[in-house]
Amino acid sequence: MYQKILAKIHDQYFQDISRGAFEHVRLLSPSLKDSHCLDVGCGGGRMLKDLFDVGCEVSGFDSSPEMVEIALSRLPGADIRTGDILTYELERYDIVTMVGEILSYALRGAPNRYGASRALFQKVYKSLDGGGMFLFDFLTEGFDFSGRYFRDEDEFTVYAEVLQSRFDIQRHLTSFLKNGSFYEKSVEIHELVLLKPGMIEEQLADCGFIIKKIDAYGSVTLLDGRVGFECMRP
Known about the structure:
This protein is 31% helix and 38% strand. By secondary structure, it is of the alpha/beta class.
């Protein structure tokens, strides 16, 4: 998932959510110097670099080794690893971000998705210091994601066919990236789970979070069918 070609395309051309999430964090925590931030599903590390540049201690991980390689090229020597949030051992943080449908990716292999999400939220809550922030979004049940989507630019082309069942979607992605006078091609299948916002909100409240449902990160509006939560540990 997010192998070499698609990882490069995503890092270069699909960074609005990371930019908006950084803006969102800055609005809520204007003074970030010496804060410790973990970005789950950090991709190419663009938000981590923005946080680092304003004085944050940063950590990140991603399930894609190719994405981690890009992130480490952007932040050499940083604590950025390949990992899975469901099994990753968390430290102490002031901010945890998980933006760009990462929860829907992370729960795809869990035998009980809501049991896994509850355990994850409890783990994040315990890792945060008082006043800490948890910011994330996911794909929702009840929205029709199915269809065919096509984006064609000078440097790349991505074609996606999305198949949907009641609780899951599959994205069949064919990507082309320009390399000199040629194009490199990749084919990937991404599986994501669909979740009920009410159930997620209830689990967050049970953990002790102060919750605000959001439909944007900063000035960047979430795409249709996505719901975000801004969560604070008292």
